[in-house]
Amino acid sequence: MAVPAKVRVAILISGRGSNMVALVEAARDPAFPAEIVLVLSNDSGAEGLSRAAAAGIPTKALDHRSYPDRATFDAAIDAALREAGAELVCLAGFMRILTDGFVEGWAGRMLNIHPSLLPLFKGTHTHAQALAAGVRLHGCTVHFVVPELDAGPIVAQAAVPVRQGDDPDSLAARVIVQERRLYPAALALVAGGKARLDAGRVVIDAVPSEGVLFSL
Ligand code: GRF
User: Fold this and answer.
1) Which of 33, 36, 56, 205 is the most exposed place for a label (fewest CB within 10 A)?
2) What confidence tens digit (pLDDT) does each residue in 111-142 have?
3) How far is the CA of 77 from the centre of ligand 1 (A)?
4) Full set of structural domains in the chain with CATH
5) Distance between terminal CA atoms of the chain?
6) Is the CB–ligand 1 distance for residue 139 below 6 Å?
7) Residue whose CA lies nearest to ligand 1 atom number 1
8) What is the pTM of this model?
9) Could you tell me if the CB of 93 is within 6 A of ligand 1?
């Protein structure tokens, strides 16, 4: 039987890239439906770029400060993605706001991971936001990217308890463990055709893995 072609995925990062490494490691499994063809950063000093290179993944740095505006920078990213033959894009700690035109060009083909249970706690400092709100459950979300920040159809979520005495760092440490499990699981669903967009929501055709809350 012919092995189905793997979906070509590019990952955009700005920092340490631990979610990116989790995706790269998951994609080593021959049964994983995606392959990582490019890791791109807006910061040539991003730790994640050297981690990707060490894993044998092609890397590229495009410094946003060398472009006159967001649209020109986004056009350069778009060109790099197309040159790499990317079919899906994963944002993984990519700290630049993308223009609506870029996002619309990748509509239904771009995922992001956000460190909260969306729609709660959009933006930055999500762990401090969760502590300030006094929630007992916090977590992370993988969603399709739409022009509105940290919105977009939710593919999968994972939750963690908020413990007495947590501070933003201890909570972040608990959430990132789940992020690194959730993102590969969500990418496998999307790349494997088991999660599809239908009228602005994600419909999933799979049995949830333990501890991963799919929107079923
Ligand atoms: C993660 O918490 C991600 O959700 C957030 O930025 C952090 C990136 O961490 N948006 P890493 O670079 O993947 O280690």
Assistant:
1) 56
2) 999 999 999 999 999 999 999 999 999 999 99
3) 20
4) 1-106 (3.40.50.170), 113-216 (3.40.50.170)
5) 31
6) no
7) 93
8) 0.95
9) yes
